[in-house]
Amino acid sequence: MEPQNQQQQQNEDGGGSGKGNGFLCRQSSTRWTPTTDQIRILKDLYYNNGVRSPSAEQIQRISARLRQYGKIEGKNVFYWFQNHKARERQKKRFTSDSSPAVSMQRGGGVAVSNVWKPDHEAFHNKFPNISHGVCSASPSSASTLTVGQNMGNYGYGSVTMEKNFRDCSISAGGSSTGVGGGSLSHNFGWVGVEPYSSTYSFIDKRKVLLDEYDDEE
Amino acid sequence: MEPQNQQQQQNEDGGGSGKGNGFLCRQSSTRWTPTTDQIRILKDLYYNNGVRSPSAEQIQRISARLRQYGKIEGKNVFYWFQNHKARERQKKRFTSDSSPAVSMQRGGGVAVSNVWKPDHEAFHNKFPNISHGVCSASPSSASTLTVGQNMGNYGYGSVTMEKNFRDCSISAGGSSTGVGGGSLSHNFGWVGVEPYSSTYSFIDKRKVLLDEYDDEE
DNA sequence: ACGATATGAATGAATG
DNA sequence: CATTCATTCATATCGT
Question: Which of A9, A106, A146, B7 is the most buried (most CB within 10 A)?
Fold first, then answer.
């Protein structure tokens, strides 16, 4: 991403830094600042190789590899993937959180709609089918190539994919959430702010859904 | 702060907006510039309704509703609340914090029209070990008014210094990842994108695991 | 025109 | 995996 440039500076210091400030050396901010090369590789792995939640071993390898381009730790890699995936999902949720739509087995590309993503580098976008969502399990997709290193194994068909569907369907059913309470200023029922906080957790009326405005676009 | 005197009515442009972009049609002016109506509604939600971190569904509704007043996307709403909350807290940290004594009661600058202000306090100074008295005492503003919705999460009352330790080493033995071949795009064999991600259900011991991620190269 | 400030956007790090 | 917090960058806007 980074439509505009910025960062790109890494201290090769072998440690120390951190909170050991006290002097004008205010630049070794505790936080990891990925170099452009590191980001490039990470994205390559993410988009071109479908890496989403690397295992501990993979993380070690990745971080070791990326270390050539700057200081980095395993947790950085871990967080990077976590965040990248989470944000991609979140983005989708804000815009079209209609229905999970498990749908077909990757019949037609994943189409990662770039709605509010400034596009990443826009360089390596060659391979269209990458196991994007969680539901891959694609049996015979000929796309095995990209991830087909020669480490011997895989068919990519056993990708597990854990149980991601926890929030499936909201069923905007009846609008029984009496909003009649009356807000002080306006009726913000459309927002979904519950007028009363229930103490009973098992009812879980979290999803309010009483919108009548609904959105379009 | 907060120049609330602008009547800019959303530039619906699609080509050279105010910015002096000389080439071709530019996407709007990069960043979203909320209209006064949008800001008014957002603040209403924030202050009068206690909305702080709207959920995805709420964000959708809010953005849909605000779209009447100008171009807006879900992320804009998301960021707006994020920022607004963060900045309010940040400013508060400078003024009232740093001394439990007097300190001018947040008179700082937040001169906006607030009619509730549910949150105050919330000091979770993330210090490794800080003795934190359980001073639970719902203080100011008990005016429940009429909107008593459960706004997400507020109350940091309990310390929740939970530290679930579930040791479980990952034993990053020497994997037999023979690197070497050649893949079509890049050679990512070193990553070991093996599909047998199996089901390690120990994916959650954070600290411990994160440490393990780090390797010595 | 600048410089300061307000604020949108992005993202690393954590926590639940 | 979702959510949240803190920081930081970038830019719009205003003041002088």
Answer: A146
Residue A141 has pLDDT above 90, yes or no: no
Q: Which of A149, A194, A201, A216 has the highest number of chain B CBs within 10 A, making it the mutation to test binding with B?
A: A149
CA distance B206 to B128: 16
Nearest to A194 among B56, B150, B179 (CB): B150
Instruction: Check whether A66 has a pLDDT greater than 90.
Output: yes
Tokens of A64: 């070791």
Q: Which residues 121-150 of chain A have a CB within 8 Å of chain B? A: 124, 126-127, 145-150
Residue A76 has pLDDT above 80, yes or no: yes
Q: What is the pLDDT of residues B50-88, one digit of tens each?
A: 999 999 999 999 999 999 999 999 999 999 999 999 999
Q: Which nucleotide is nearest to A82 (CA to C1')?
A: D1
Quick one: pLDDT at residue B80?
97
Q: Kindly determine whether the C-beta of residue A33 is less than 7 Å away from any atom of nucleic acid strand C.
A: yes
Which of A:52-111 have CB within 8 Å of B? 53-65, 67, 73-75, 77-78, 90-91, 93-95, 97
Q: Does A26 touch chain B (CB under 8 A)?
A: no
Q: Give, in Å, how far the C1' of C14 lies from the CA of B204.
A: 13
Q: Which nucleotides of C are covered by protein (CB under 7 A)?
A: 5-16
Bigger pLDDT: A188 or A209?
A: A188
- pLDDT, one tens digit per residue, over A25-56 is 444 678 999 999 999 999 999 999 999 999 99
Backbone angles phi, psi at A145, to 5 degrees: -55, -55
Q: What is the DSSP string of chain B?
A: ---TT--------SS--SS---SSPPPTTSS----HHHHHHHHIIIIIS--SS--HHHHHHHHHHHGGGS---HHHHHHHHHHHHHHHHHHHHHHTTT-SS---TT-SS--S--S------------SS----------S-----S-----S-----S-------------------------SS---GGG---S--TT-TT---HHHHHHHH----
Which tokens sit at B40?
């008014």
For chain B, domains (ranges, CATH) are 36-94 (1.10.10)
Shortest Cα distance, chain B CAs vs residue A25, angstroms: 22
Question: Length of chain A, please?
Answer: 217
Give the mean model confidence (pLDDT) for residues B162-181. 38
Confidence of residue B209 (pLDDT cuts 50, 70, 90): confident
